[in-house]
Design goal:
Chain lengths: ~325, ~325
């Protein structure tokens, strides 16, 4: 490892917030040295508890995460928050929301908030989030919370790298549980019904229970349902307990390592896909527009072309 | 091309619904011969108009698509519908909804409906949808409609292969336009406000207009806003006109080929990514669990490993 990277890592691990921000930017933007940095950080990872939280827009996720952060700060734990907000660039919701939150925690260096926004890249956001979590973990944060808005495949990809996944529902949002998409219900280790003082909270609970009765999990854990009113701080302690209970369960049942291996299998495939795509793009280089034009003119079929490129890639160094 | 594939294609192009269903299954499941089939079908493609429609759950998309299908049938055009429904496997919504719709059109061979559901694969649904659209196009359908539920990156990936993209909004769904995610507002060639007899339709329209004033499109098209009440057939003709207007605009401005080339560039990258991933997975083969375990034990860093695999792949045939 070169001296410059060692210096960066020393500063990062001493708690320097600017070094932390810079390191996350480096890996997020794939700036010069990003790969060497991650390799050098890796030995320092694996200590942070990583909690993923997701739910539909308007479910009160940010407020809940803030409450949790305050809870953990009272226990003297340091917290890193990655807020993945794929709000439209038109509305700028991510930036505004983030500024307000930053002010709130401004005086506490024990909480570090970083927001990430969709850039329309192919699967790039999940990878960028994972890398940012790695940096926060290596920096010595006790807890890393990854919050993401939405209930689609994007969110599944993002939160499944967490050790514990919390899915947040609210009463009275249209068809409730029915509109939650494939994958999200399945990845919940804990359900939260936020704004649970509203009408319909019992119905949401019944629907979750009904779905749970249809399919047992491989690890035999039954995700608990925690009711919260995040705006008033109600239920935060119960949620923190539920998270701790699940972590304890994983330890008791010797599932920590198994889960870790499963996570890494998925991440490896994703990392490999990204790396291969990069290589393939480089291979096609400036030809891609010409290829696309030839396909659009029906002079070439895309299926044979892709086979040719993959073959060619395998025979060059 | 071998005789068996030629026979399949002849049957498919003669309008045989069973041959059509079988061909879609072959490419969707990557069953034996899928690649040869697509190569052989490609010369027959490029004639169908491909229309993508997306919107939040509950926006009345299926009803609108049905109305459009009836409209085009009156003009004696044949229609293929691909309903991409990433509903949770728990709820089984896709299957039920599809059966009801199938019955409705049962007597008309001019309408073919195919539903696709999320299978949790990495980007596999967009690819499967594109391949199914290719089969429908090659089979001689005049129109292919791709409808998808939701407003996330999944849906962007799925509908952007269409020639015309319709985004469906409804009044009174929470924060309306604010909750529409990155990418969706940008890809709309036409906006529909469905259930426009409800309170709040004007507000949605104002919000769309406000967003449009912030960002001009590269092709200088201003997406029109069509108000519909799909359950009563109101606005269907106007929507069909708006679609035809946009198609005419693309022709007048000589943008058809350009758009086609851009679409193929994106699809090529996606196809290449899938092909490379398959190759990479095969390369790792049974080692992936061992690798993941070594990473989980911190005996190996994942970043170096991926580099090694990509390097190794480039030197083997």
């Amino acid at each position: 490892m070169n001296q410059e990277i060692q210096t960066r890592i020393d500063r990062l691990r001493s708690g320097d917030a600017r070094a932390l921000a810079r390191a996350i930017s480096t890996v997020e933007n794939r700036a010069a040295g990003w790969s060497e940095l991650l390799k050098a950080l890796f030995p320092h990872t694996g200590k942070a508890r990583v909690i993923g939280l997701t739910g539909a827009p308007g479910a009160g996720k940010s407020t809940l995460v803030d409450q949790l952060a305050k809870h953990y700060r009272k226990e003297n734990q340091t917290v890193g928050i990655i807020a993945v907000d794929p709000t439209s660039p038109y509305t700028g919701g991510a930036i505004l929301g983030d500024r307000i939150r930053m002010q709130d925690h401004y005086s506490d260096p024990g909480i570090y908030i970083r927001s990430m926004a969709t850039r329309g890249s192919l699967g790039g956001l999940a990878r960028a989030t994972a890398d940012a979590a790695t940096v926060l973990d290596a920096s010595g944060r006790d807890l890393v919370m990854i919050e993401t808005v939405g209930v689609g495949q994007d969110e599944v990809d993002i939160v499944r790298l967490a050790d514990v996944t919390v899915v947040i529902l609210v009463p009275g949002m249209g068809d409730d549980v029915q509109t939650i998409k494939a994958g999200i219900m399945e990845i919940a280790d804990i359900f939260v019904i936020n704004k649970s003082d509203r009408e319909g909270a019992e119905r949401v609970e019944r629907e979750i229970r009904a779905m749970q009765s249809l399919a047992a999990r491989n690890d035999h854990w039954t995700p608990p349902i925690v009711k919260t009113v995040a705006s008033e701080g109600v239920g935060t302690t119960e949620l923190a307990e539920a998270i701790a209970n699940y972590e304890a369960y994983l330890k008791e049942e010797n599932l920590v390592f198994k889960k870790n291996v499963e996570n890494w299998q998925e991440r490896l495939v994703e990392m490999l896909r990204d790396a291969m795509l990069e290589k393939a793009r480089a291979q096609m280089g400036g030809s891609i527009e010409r290829y696309a034009a030839e396909i659009a003119e029906h002079k070439r079929d895309p299926y044979s072309l892709v086979e040719e490129i993959v073959r060619a890639l395998a025979t060059t160094t």
